[in-house]
């Protein structure tokens, strides 16, 4: 099965719930000894404020491209069978899921490490914007991962076709993987933009 056939990336329009079973079923396979998942849900408070809902907007064509790119990066760093990534747009009330990732691999470590990489990379690079709606107001929020990436690169942080790799020696645990931006690819990218 080709890599594209084992990767499912979806952005769901408003009022479409994420069917986690669908994505877990998609990544399931007899040769997969591990399936790692992540579900991002709307919590009821943030810094003492009562949250009513989150609202998401995206530049969908670029978001899909960025999500596919991060999946390719994960595949080049870990031995993965299948990947599914889904993100909702529109209103996501408290307790509902806004983003879901499922990854399968022969061994659990690869699935766990790749799953963490994928959610971190999604939050740092994919052009999906979040508004927090409180009982007494609302505010657009930047993901901390996006801000950190922007500061690290001195750029806008959005997916730009750069090569992101995780070196095998840097994979200590699921929470200890290191993301390294290929500086040569960044230099090439900056000269093509000017």
Question: Could you explain how this protein is built, in words?
Answer:
This protein has 194 residues and is of the alpha+beta class. Helices cover 34% and strands 33% of the residues. The strands form three sheets. Strands 3, 4, 6, 8 and 9 form a five-stranded antiparallel beta sheet that branches. Strands 1-5-7-2 form a four-stranded mixed beta sheet, with helices on both faces. Strands 10-11 form a two-stranded antiparallel sheet. The model is unreliable at 167-194 (pLDDT under 50). Substrate binds at residues 107-108, 123, 130-132.
Blueprint of the fold:
Layout: E1 7-12, H1 20-27, E2 34-41, E3 45-46, E4 49-58, H2 60-77, E5 80-88, E6 90-93, E7 97-105, H3 108-125, E8 128-134, E9 137-141, H4 144-153, E10 164-165, E11 180-181, H5 183-193
Helix pairs in contact: 2-3, 3-4
């Amino acid at each position: 099965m080709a890599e594209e056939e084992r990767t499912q990336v979806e952005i769901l329009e408003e009022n479409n719930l994420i069917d986690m079973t669908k994505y877990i079923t998609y990544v399931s396979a007899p040769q997969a000894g591990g399936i790692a998942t992540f579900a991002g849900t709307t919590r009821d408070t943030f810094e003492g404020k009562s949250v009513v809902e989150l609202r998401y907007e995206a530049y969908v064509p670029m978001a899909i491209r960025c999500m596919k790119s991060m999946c390719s990066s994960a595949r080049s760093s870990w031995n993965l069978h299948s990947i599914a990534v889904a993100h909702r747009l529109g209103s996501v009330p408290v307790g509902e899921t806004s983003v879901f990732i499922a990854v399968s691999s022969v061994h659990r470590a690869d699935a766990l490490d790749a799953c963490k990489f994928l959610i971190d990379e999604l939050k740092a690079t994919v052009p999906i914007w979040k508004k927090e709606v409180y009982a007494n107001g609302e505010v657009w929020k930047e993901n901390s991962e996006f801000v950190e990436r922007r500061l690290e690169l001195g750029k806008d942080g959005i997916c730009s076709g750069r090569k992101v790799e995780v070196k095998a020696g840097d994979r200590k645990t699921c929470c200890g993987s290191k993301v390294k931006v290929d500086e040569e690819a960044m230099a090439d990218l900056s000269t093509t933009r000017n």
